[in-house]
From TrEMBL:
Bifunctional DNA N-glycosylase with associated apurinic/apyrimidinic (AP) lyase function that catalyzes the first step in base excision repair (BER), the primary repair pathway for the repair of oxidative DNA damage. The DNA N-glycosylase activity releases the damaged DNA base from DNA by cleaving the N-glycosidic bond, leaving an AP site. The AP lyase activity cleaves the phosphodiester bond 3' to the AP site by a beta-elimination. Primarily recognizes and repairs oxidative base damage of pyrimidines. The keyword Glycosyltransferase does not apply. Residues 12-27 have a biased composition (Polar residues). Residues 162-315 form the HhH-GPD domain. This is Endonuclease III homolog.
Length: 402
């Protein structure tokens, strides 16, 4: 391929006020790399031919000389790649938790007693919650009355590890499948020696089941080798297990060992206590909620509040559209500042359609809490003919407990 470049005529150059020199032409046009010849049509026109076309579509490269190399090896880096930051994983920032004691909220005891009545009274509206029959604290009952206590405690630990971002019903079914696949008993030794594929097949309905399969087997190996098949009974030792945090650790100590070492705070406890206005200012993370609650809640109530509020959150004070009309707190002024009673007439605001239950979104929505529906999608429509928003979400995040 030959490229031709037409230069201005000599007559035109003479008429210019400043005549460029030959060196200027050579520097600007790289004449040394061109092959010159006279035009056959006009003798005053000189044509230049490129020996090779200089069209390069590749991205520009930045070349730097490696000063340490004696042979002068060139180290080339694409300038485009240099613009992108490193994708190296970063450790999550730890939330700042205030350790200063907080005063007890006004009327907190009255609200607590009313919630307990709704949960445990024979005619309570929050009775028979999923946590009452399929919660992690009763996972050990599957070992039977004659089962070893250490296997019951180990079952509770595995159930807690599987319950993260998974509903109680799914977690309970996974524990049942896992115990059945291991011969009827869920022990540290049997789980530690089981093939990983067998564990994955048994728990593949829970959220993040592939990763959790590795975590529970690693926990089984640790319990077998370091604790004789049992579960440690201190929070410090439990926190050394991968994927076990403060919430799981304190619940394990309460349910497995009967130790009152701290409050297990999950999304329900975090959400409901903030809706009740028990934190001033509102807490942002469950760990901050735990520290605040432990500073003023009577010590004898620490093991009870999680189970009570989890069932209350599953039945009444749900993440989206809480049943405030059925809640006893709504009839007493000042107990719940977030109460919003749903009227019979349509109201303006966000409407729920599709598979989401109900019509009106009421109550305070905590960050990151969306009610998941079967089919992995929830439809939100703005009232008054506004635009509709379709949100598709993975159902593995639909857990009732974290």
């Amino acid at each position: 391929m030959t490229s031709r470049l037409k230069l201005p005529s000599t007559r035109a150059l003479r008429s210019s006020t400043t005549r460029p020199s030959t060196s200027q032409f050579e520097s600007n046009l790289d004449v040394k790399a061109l092959k010159a010849q006279r035009s056959s049509l006009n003798a005053s026109v000189t044509l230049f031919e490129l020996d090779e076309p200089r069209f390069d579509s590749r991205p520009a490269k930045r070349v730097k000389l490696d000063s340490d190399s004696k042979e002068g090896v060139l180290d080339c880096e694409d300038s485009v790649a240099k613009k992108h930051k490193s994708t190296k994983s970063r450790l999550p920032r730890k939330a700042k938790v205030s350790s200063s004691p907080q005063p007890a909220p006004v009327k907190w005891r009255q609200a607590y007693d009313l919630i307990a009545e709704m949960r445990y009274a024979s005619d309570g509206c929050a009775r028979d919650a999923p946590v009452d029959t399929m919660g992690c604290d009763i996972a050990g009952e599957g070992e039977g009355l004659e089962g070893e206590d250490k296997n019951k405690r180990f079952s509770i630990l595995i159930s807690l590890m599987l319950s993260s971002q998974t509903k109680d019903q799914v977690t309970h079914a996974a524990i049942t499948n896992l115990r059945s696949s291991l011969g009827g008993s869920l022990s540290a030794s049997s789980l530690a020696s089981a093939p990983l594929s067998q564990i994955e097949e048994s728990i593949n309905k829970v959220g993040f089941w592939r990763r959790k399969s590795e975590y529970v087997q690693a926990a089984a190996v640790r319990c077998r080798d370091s604790y004789g098949g049992d579960v440690p009974k201190t929070i410090e030792e439990l926190l050394e297990f991968k994927a076990v945090g403060n919430k799981m650790g304190y619940l394990m100590l309460q349910s497995g060992w009967g130790l009152n070492s701290g409050i297990g705070v999950d999304v329900h406890v975090h959400r409901i206590t903030n809706r009740l206005g028990w934190h001033k200012p509102p807490t942002k993370v469950p760990e901050e909620t735990r520290v605040n609650l432990e500073s003023w809640l009577p010590h004898e109530l620490h093991p009870k509040i999680n189970h009570m509020l989890v069932g209350f959150g599953q039945m009444i004070c749900t993440p989206i559209r809480p049943n405030c009309s059925e809640c006893s707190l709504s009839s007493v002024e000042g107990l719940c500042p977030s109460v919003k009673l749903t009227s019979s007439s349509p109201r303006k605001g966000k409407q729920v359609s599709g598979k989401a239950k109900g019509d009106v979104l009421t109550g305070d929505l905590m960050a990151g809490e969306l009610e998941m529906k079967e089919g992995n999608e929830t439809m939100l429509e703005a009232g008054g003919g506004g635009p509709s928003i379709k949100i598709e979400l993975e159902n593995i995040f639909s857990g009732s407990r974290l």
